[in-house]
Amino acid sequence: MNLSDDATFFLLRLVEQFPALWDMTLAEYADTTVKESIWERIAKEMNEEWPAYGPYDAKALRRFFDNKRRTYRLEKKKVESTKSGMPSSDVYKGRWRFYNSLRFLDASKVTCWRSVSTDACQAAAETMKVRPDIDDPSQTSDDAAAATDDQNITVDDPIAGKALSAMSRQGTQKKRRRSPHRLDEILAQRQTVLEKIAASVGQPASTTQQEDDIDYFGKVVAAHMREVPKDKLIPCQKAILSALEIYINKSE
Questions:
Q1: pTM
Q2: Mean pLDDT of the chain
Q3: Domain edges within the chain
Q4: Could you report the per-residue pLDDT of 236-246, keeping only the tens digit for each?
Q5: Per the UniProt entry, what is one GO biological process (predicted)?
C-alpha cells in the first residue's frame, strides 16, 4: 500500500485515537473481534477522507501500521543508544518523518482516544517536527530504515488541521430549517388547545371572576415568556399547551 505523507499522518492520527490497537495494558487489546471492528471503522474513514489511494481494507491498513510501528521501534532504539557526553552533532534525534507521530506508542496515558462505542473525539492539534526529505524506510529493508541524513529540516504537521476538520464533521450536525408546514401545524394545535380551554370554562371571559383569574395568570406567563429567546418561543409554547391539554382532557 502506497500512501502520501498526508494520508499516512491522517491514518496514524486515527490509530492513536483507538488504544485498543496498540496499548497492551488494555483488555480490548487481546480481543480480536474488537480490533477488527476498529480497523473496519478506520478503513471507512480513510475511504471518505483519502479516496485517491483507496479503496482500503482493514487487513491492508493493519499491515501498513505494523510496518510503521516496526520502523519506529528501530528509530527509537537508535535514539536510546545515544550516550550522554557525546557531541551534539553525534546525538541521533530520530529524524524519520513519522517518528513524532508514533510517539503515542510509548505514552502511559492517552489524552484523546476513541473506543468501539463512540464516534466523537476532539482531536488534539499540535505541531510536529518532521523530515520531508527522508524516504520511508518501512518500504525497504531494516538497514535502509536506519539510514538518514545529518540535516534537520522542520515543517508543520500536515495532518493536524485535516484531522480536526474530519472529527468536527462527525460530531456536528447541521441545523435544519423548520418547515412552514410544520409551523402551520403548531399554530393549528395551539388554536385547538385554546378552544378547549374556552369550552371548559363554559362562560364568557368578561362576565366571570374565574376568567379574570385566568386572564391574570396568562399575563404572568406572557411576562416570563418575553425572557425566552426567540428561537425557543415555539417549543416553549408547545410545552405549556401540552401541559394544559393534559388537565383539559382529564376534566372532560
A1: 0.41
A2: 67
A3: 5-171, 180-251
A4: 888 888 887 77
A5: regulation of transcription by RNA polymerase II
